[in-house]
Design goal:
Number of helices: 9
Number of domains: 3
Largest sheet: 6 strands, antiparallel
Distance between the termini: 57 Å
């Protein structure tokens, strides 16, 4: 048994603009993590993981941040107080200062930051066959490299600056189980432990599993929100907000099949009714029936393909829902389902808005992959569902040789060729 004590400051008494300024700390997004792990499996790259001990204790306060702290009990020395030079747990700016300190360390180790996800650090030398990537999430660092000695060398290098705990090969990341099948060059991701824990937490582990996350015959509206005192009393003890939040992490991690359902349920968080709560329980029932499934990546096809669509029902507020997913090496690495920010005048306009959202994400994902792994990807195909027909958009690389390009000298534009029915509609979207 090991006992642990930590000195924590009373950060709640700090004043913004006086005691602290910035508080944000960048972390690697889940799409970046999934994408890099997929390429690691496909190219047989080695993985590792470390934990930074007392990460927030390594941050350094600037000259503009003058923070005094009373001496802890048992260490009083007269009436003097402590002037902090480094961050402690509890300070508002601790996370931000730790990230800045980590950037300094990674720069000394000759790492570069990814431009589109600045919590992803990498070092690449194609001539020597060197590639090492570090994914940072506060004090957890997941490592992907072309050879095991590179990982060992990185661990030895970072030990000179901070204390670490070597976690060995990557098996868990942010509550997601990682499984490698080396001989098939596959990687599997699962949140079974997380799903089981939230089922037990909300007392829903005895419910009957279902095969679909939503009932297509039931339409959820704000008219189902409680209006009488009895209905409000019934919903008072229902953990609706917490349950939807728990489902949201599952949908963002490894369960894209419940993303639309969670997006729909989150719209009624302000005043949920019994019908909405029943819909939440149905999603839990679906997850119970599918919790043993793994999100699988593998195969030889490394082309990045996207799928986009818009829900034309327009809901009550006349805003359609955009949805998209991007697939590489046989599995989805990026997906989303969100209400559109503007009111469209037709379903056709909603489809174009959905295509715009998906195109922006495709450009982001292409930049991430090409910057870290080197050579540019081939043209990315974005498939659109337009009524009963499929459309197709080709996202070409900079300076392409397209069939028709009204801006031949502008490499900052992407030519779109949208095809459905019998016609071809060329167009240009500015980046």
């Amino acid at each position: 048994m090991r006992y642990k004590a930590r000195l924590v400051t009373q950060g709640f008494s700090q004043v913004s603009g006086v005691d602290y300024f910035d508080t944000f700390a960048l972390v690697a997004c889940l799409a970046s993590i999934r994408t890099i792990l997929v390429f690691a499996a496909a190219e047989n790259l080695e993985t590792g993981q470390i934990d930074i001990k007392g990460a927030y204790l390594n941050g350094k306060l600037t000259a503009d941040e003058t923070v005094y702290m009373r001496q802890p009990p048992g260490y009083q020395n007269g009436t003097t107080v402590c002037l902090l030079r480094k961050t402690l747990y509890g300070l508002k700016q601790s996370g931000h200062r730790w990230y800045q300190r980590l950037v300094e360390i990674m720069t000394k180790l000759k790492f570069m930051r990814c431009e589109v996800d600045q919590a992803v650090f990498y070092r690449r030398d194609e001539g020597k066959g060197i590639l090492i990537i570090v994914l940072v999430h506060v004090d957890d660092c997941s490592i992907v490299a072309s050879a095991q000695p590179l990982i060992d060398r990185f661990k030895d290098g970072i030990k000179k600056h901070v204390e670490i705990t070597d976690m060995g090969e990557l098996n868990w990341i942010l509550g997601i189980k990682v499984r490698r099948i080396w001989e098939e060059r596959k990687i599997l991701l699962s949140q079974r432990s997380y799903i089981d824990s939230i089922l037990r937490h909300y007392g829903l582990d005895d419910l009957k599993p279902l095969s679909t996350p939503m009932d297509s015959n039931i339409k959820l509206t704000s008219a189902q929100s409680p209006t009488t005192t009895d209905d409000i009393t019934k919903m008072r003890d229902m953990p609706y907000h917490e349950a939807v939040g728990s489902l949201m992490y599952a949908s963002l991690g490894t369960c894209p099949d419940v993303m639309f359902a969670v997006q729909t349920l989150s719209r009624f968080a302000k005043n949920p009714g019994l019908a909405h709560w029943d819909a939440v329980k149905r999603v839990f029932q679906y997850l119970k029936g599918t919790h043993e499934l793994w999100l699988s990546y593998g195969g030889t096809k490394n082309d990045l393909e996207g799928y986009a669509d818009a829900d034309g029902s327009m809901m009550e507020d006349r805003r359609a829902v955009s949805g998209y997913a991007f697939v590489v090496y046989g599995g989805a690495v990026l997906w989303s389902a969100k209400r559109q920010e503007i009111v469209s005048l037709s379903t056709t306009e909603s489809e174009y808005i959905a295509a715009t959202y998906a195109t922006k994400e495709a450009l982001w994902l292409r930049t991430l992959i090409s910057q870290i792994f080197g050579p540019a990807l081939p043209a990315t195909t974005l498939y659109l569902v337009c009524g009963l027909d499929w459309g197709r958009v080709r996202l070409l690389a900079p300076d392409p040789t397209p069939v028709h390009n009204p801006y031949p000298s502008n490499s900052g534009r992407v030519l779109l060729g949208v095809t459905w029915g019998m016609g071809r509609v060329p167009g240009v979207l500015p980046i």
